[in-house]
Design a protein that fits this description.
Elements: H1 9-14, H2 35-44, H3 47-51, H4 54-67, E1 73-74, H5 81-85, E2 90-93, E3 97-100, H6 107-111, H7 123-136, E4 142-147, H8 149-158, H9 166-174, H10 176-200, E5 204-209, H11 217-238, E6 244-248, H12 255-259, E7 265-267, H13 274-281, E8 286-291, H14 300-314, E9 320-324, H15 334-347
Parallel strand pairs: 1-4, 4-5, 5-6, 6-7, 7-8, 8-9
Antiparallel strand pairs: 2-3
């Protein structure tokens, strides 16, 4: 932890230490809802060109911090940088999203996968982290991140964003050992990638398990949770003391097991009550969340009421990082995000005073 940061609320909250108000950031806080982001992306030409340009990554990372009183920056990148570096031919199709030209569909293809070197194939990400860290100075922390092994595997096998996930689930059922081998390569890849991000200047690390919630409980434990547990364990050795956040979308049924991994905090989406989550995990982890992103389409007075509801749901005391329950949506009016943050600043100090 960088002790010289002027704003360390986020890191203190992750460690369940006292703060003066609840810290706040937004998943996808640098993104298409901001006109300044759209201008930067137009300057880059396309999304991946933006991701591969460290100076522009820094520019868009800082944009929401200049607009809003947020408590942490998060690296601007994409969860699919690792499989892209494995040579699977990533491209983004308008109206469809990410597509891989060479999906992993055979045992030979799985065996040929190798963990990319973060300072070679993914050097552009590390250069972006270093550039952002230099621009932030001691202003606030920086979050580095990766997709979870299971989530990366879904895109790599399906070849695109999943709907019924039939291709990877067939692999999971027919050839579970092959999927285990693929996930082990991804555990190594994610661990080295996040370790390198920390070395480059990230103060906290987050694993986005976007698709873990599509698995039945036993499959979730084997193919999603266990790889994340190994990553948390390995990061404890390579980055001792660095906070690690795990977030499984639609993962509310698994919070106790996720807390058992040794992570520092759990992201919680809007389908799970923060009060229930807090009761179930106790003092083992901090909680991050969990306003439904669609709330930001509502009137500002209703946004304030919903912000108050989320704060009351968590209740008094340390260990809460306010966030959306998933990424901010592209159509969100920027002023409505500001209304949420202003409400949070006004209402949250009361939850950090002695009762």
């Amino acid at each position: 932890m960088k002790t010289s940061l002027r704003n360390d609320r986020f890191l203190r909250a992750l460690r369940r230490q006292n703060v003066d108000r609840t810290p706040v950031w937004m998943m996808r806080q640098a993104g298409r809802y901001l006109p300044e982001y759209r201008a930067s992306r137009a300057k880059a030409g396309d999304f991946m060109s933006l991701c591969r340009n460290p100076e522009l990554c820094c520019e868009v990372t800082l944009q929401p911090l200049d607009r809003y009183a947020l408590d942490t920056a998060i690296l601007f990148s994409d969860i699919l940088t690792i499989p892209d570096a494995m040579g699977l031919g990533l491209r983004f199709v308008e109206g469809e999203g990410p597509v891989f030209d060479r999906p992993v569909r055979s045992l030979d293809a799985i065996r040929s996968l190798a963990a990319p070197d973060p300072e070679v194939e993914l050097r552009y990400v590390m250069d972006a982290v270093r550039t952002i860290r230099g621009a932030l100075g001691d202003r606030m922390p920086l979050i580095g991140f990766s997709g979870s092994p299971w989530t990366l595997a879904t895109y790599m096998v399906e070849g695109r964003g999943g709907h019924d996930f039939a291709v990877i689930k067939k692999l999971m059922i027919d050839e579970p050992a092959a999927l285990d081998a693929m996930l082990e390569t991804l555990v190594q890849s994610v661990t080295s990638y996040l370790t390198a991000q920390h070395a480059a200047g990230a103060d906290a690390l987050m694993v986005f398990d976007t698709w873990g919630g599509v698995l039945h409980p036993d499959a979730f434990v084997r193919f999603s949770l266990e790889p994340m547990r190994r990553i948390v364990e390995a990061l404890g050795r390579s980055c001792p003391g660095v906070p690690v956040i795990l977030f499984t979308k639609n993962g509310g049924a698994h919070l106790e097991r996720m807390a058992d991994t040794g992570c520092t905090a759990l992201g919680v989406d809007w389908t799970t009550s923060l009060a229930d989550a807090r009761r179930r995990v106790g003092a083992r982890v901090a909680l991050q969340g969990n306003l439904d992103p669609v709330t930001l389409f509502a009137r500002p007075d209703r946004i304030r009421e919903e912000t108050a509801r989320v704060l009351a749901d968590f209740g008094h005391g340390p260990g809460h990082v306010f966030n959306l329950g998933h990424g901010i949506l592209p159509q969100t009016p920027p002023d409505h995000a500001a209304a949420m943050i202003e409400a949070l600043h006004a209402l949250s100090p009361a939850y950090h005073r002695p009762v």
